[in-house]
Amino acid sequence: MGATKTSNAVAAARGAANGRRNLILIAAVVVIAAAVLGGVVYSHALADQPQAGGTYTATLQSDGTVVAGSSTAKATLDVYEDFLCPYCKHNLEDPYGKAITQAIAAGSLRVNYHVLDLLDNETTPAGYSLRAGNAALAAAKAGRFAEFHAALYNAQPTEGQAGYTNDQLVDIGRKAGITGQQFADQVRGGTFDTEIRSQTDKARDSVNFKGTPTVLMGGTQVDIAKAGWLAQLTGAA
Fold first, then answer.
1. Domain count of the chain?
2. Domain residue limits at 32
3. What pLDDT digit, counting tens, does each position of 209-235 carry?
4. What one-character-per-residue DSSP string does 64-117 give?
């Protein structure tokens, strides 16, 4: 839009007298400069705000499973995911993430999140899936799994790129409301790397695991491509 405004201003100026042309050019420059400055200020302000909405109670288990929601929920799901997996983002998080968060918060859904590093070799250099998974477990320990989970998918890097560094993951956590030093130390120290690798090995050995994302209910595959699947499970249909 800025380029179009500039082009139109220049074209109009060329058909006018010299004095008027100069005034139009000056005005165009002022407008563009103001727009750019406003965009920079807005982007900076947005970067300092939490990037994820919604929350729920989540508990980190000793084996690395993150349990979210009430034990009395109508439906309990096992979700296997990798934060680099584009299908996890496009087929699960983007269309259903907010609804899942709302159902967990409302007490109608319980989710056992199994965070994997299945695609750890798909970044250059390798390692982002493990870093992101470890950071997510650190966020669960800090009581902000919901916010951090959403933030990682909201800004998901593409396969083949480097992904985020530990310092960048700490910053993402800060924007999601995690301010404690313990989180930063656990992210940088790879505190939960062993649990992430163990979850991945167990998933590979499971006959019910079909890649990421895999969503199971009582060991049975849930067809997340079927419209209304979540509402049907939680009784919201």
1. 2
2. 2-47
3. 999 999 999 999 999 999 999 999 998
4. SPEEES-TT-SEEEEEEE-TT-HHIIIIIIHHHHHHHHHHHHHTSEEEEEEE--
Residue with tokens 């009582």: 218
Q: Which amino acid is at 68?
A: A
Residues 99 and 160 in one domain: yes
The CATH number linked to 120 is: 3.40.30.10
Structure confidence at residue 237 (pLDDT)? 54
Q: Enter the tokens of residue 5.
A: 């405004």
Domain edge (last residue) among 28, 47, 66: 47
Residue 164 lies in a domain: yes
From the list 88, 161, 172, the residue with the least C-alpha distance to 126 is 161
Specify whether 181 is located in the same domain as 125: yes
Strand pairing report for 75-81 and 66-68:
unpaired
Q: What is the pLDDT of the chain when averaged over all its residues?
A: 82
Distance CA 167, CA 113 (A): 24
b/e sequence 14-46, b meaning 16+ C-beta within 10 Å: eeeeeeeeeebbeebeeeeeeeeeeeeeeeeee
